[in-house]
Design a protein that fits this description.
The protein is mainly beta. The protein contains two helices and eight strands, in the order βαββββββαβ. It has one domain: Sandwich (Immunoglobulin-like), CATH 2.60.40. The mean pLDDT is 90.
Length: 154
């Protein structure tokens, strides 16, 4: 027996283009002293941005950015380190440029667009896990974490 499945859809034009090179953003936190985390529980924020160009407001007037990755099991909303990382007891937090926390794996950041070029300004920081801070068990070493961003226009 053979049956037929029909597929249909609509291709649409994106409201904005991603600035060339912003498909892969690397943020280096440099060297972080464990003593700083034990005293402050988190690092200062490091700024980064997602740049948008050629925005056409006839196709959408705002953007919703979501950030997906492996969530830290001890700090909900924070990004876990990749398994190959040597460091342990820390997570990566995201926030807006005004310091408002952004939880990963949620549609959490909406911004109005203007015609032409736009910039989604963000910050990231290292947060110590509560038990690792209390017991002073943050492990030393290199770390890496991967986050994917999605942009939805309204």
């Amino acid at each position: 027996m053979a049956e037929t499945i029909n597929f249909d859809g609509i291709f649409v034009e994106d409201t904005c283009d991603l600035y060339p090179g912003d498909e892969l953003i690397t943020l280096d936190f440099g060297t972080i002293a464990d003593k700083y985390l034990y005293l402050n529980s988190r690092t200062l924020s490091e700024s980064f941005s997602i740049r948008l160009i050629n925005c056409d407001l006839s196709l959408g007037r705002e953007i919703n950015a979501s950030f997906n990755g492996n969530e830290n099991s001890f700090l909900p909303g924070y990004l876990a380190l990749d398994p190959a990382s040597q460091a342990n007891g820390i997570a990566i937090g995201l926030e807006t440029d005004t310091g408002e926390k952004i939880d990963i794996n949620k549609k959490d950041h909406t911004q109005k667009l203007s015609a032409g070029n736009n910039e989604i300004k963000l910050k990231a920081f290292i947060q110590g896990e509560h038990s690792a801070l209390a017991n002073k068990t943050i492990s030393y070493g290199t770390f890496i974490s991967t986050l994917t961003f999605f942009l939805e226009y309204n």
